[in-house]
Amino acid sequence: MTNAAHQMWQNGSLRSRLQQAGPDLALGLVSLTGVSIATSRLFGLTVSYFAQVTAAYLVLACLLVWYLPKNQPHTGLGAANRVTLFRATLILPLSALAVQTILLTDTNALFIITVTTVALILDGVDGWLARRSQIASAFGARFDMELDSFLMLVLSILVWHSGKVGAWSVLIGLPRYLYVAGGWMWPMLRAELPHSIRRKAVCVAQGVLLLVCLGPIVPPPLASGSAAAAIVVLAYSFAVDIIWLARRHPDSRNA
Q1: What is the pLDDT of residues 126-179, one digit of tens each?
Q2: Domains of the chain, first to last
Q3: Which regions of the chain are under pLDDT 70?
Q4: What is the DSSP annotation of the chain?
């Protein structure tokens, strides 16, 4: 345990967060186990697969407890974040699948498409719940956004595994992480962006195009075209945000 974590534990902050999130994380583990068992049986995977899924969930649980705001206005993670956590229990088994040596049969591809479609539908539910319950928070928005980005990276790797598109398809899942890395060198990229329906729509379009690539009846040329379209849409969306930030950066205003 780091000094910061030890100090937080001593003053009760970390302990109270763990107590608050613990029940929801335990229920999430039940869901994760069910999805992982179904995935393992369908793909014929070994015990190492379960170890990878469990490790991924432990990392997620630690991050949630660490960043969970104090004095939440509700019990546990809250309704909206519970939906996002359930989405994570669908996505993490796919993420472990992405690092396995697998053969994507038509049945396997349809399974991935079905699980991802449910996750994408629920992506709209958690935000709706947060707004309806008036409990929207920066924590919930960040949790949702990072999970969306992770899902796109996982799908882009699975598209590569499908053999329909080359390794360049992984580029579809990298922009968010390249953007964060860019923020270490260019502070303007760390500035807060305004809410954007366009950004959310691009994320949905990105997911749909990647699912098209995985479709059993979709031939490689169409899959490659869909992947290329996803890259173009993403590049446009990130370019709009970067230009918006650049125009509001102090150096550009003083030029």
Answers
A1: 777 767 766 677 888 889 999 999 999 999 999 999 999 999 999 999 999 999
A2: 3-254 (1.20.120)
A3: 1-12, 71-74, 130, 133-135, 250-255
A4: --HHHHHHHHTTHHHHHHHHHHHHHHHHHHHHHHHHHHHHHHHT--HHHHHHHHHHHHHHHHHHHHHPPSS-SSSTT-HHHHHHHHHHHHHHHHHHHHTS-----HHHHHHHHHHHHHHHHHHHHHHHHHHHTT---HHHHHHHHHHHHHHHHHHHHHHHHHTSS-GGGGGGG-HHHHHHHHHHH-GGGGSPPPP-HHHHHHHHHHHHHHHHHH-TT--HHHHHHHHHHHHHHHHHHHHHHHHHHHHHSHHHHH-
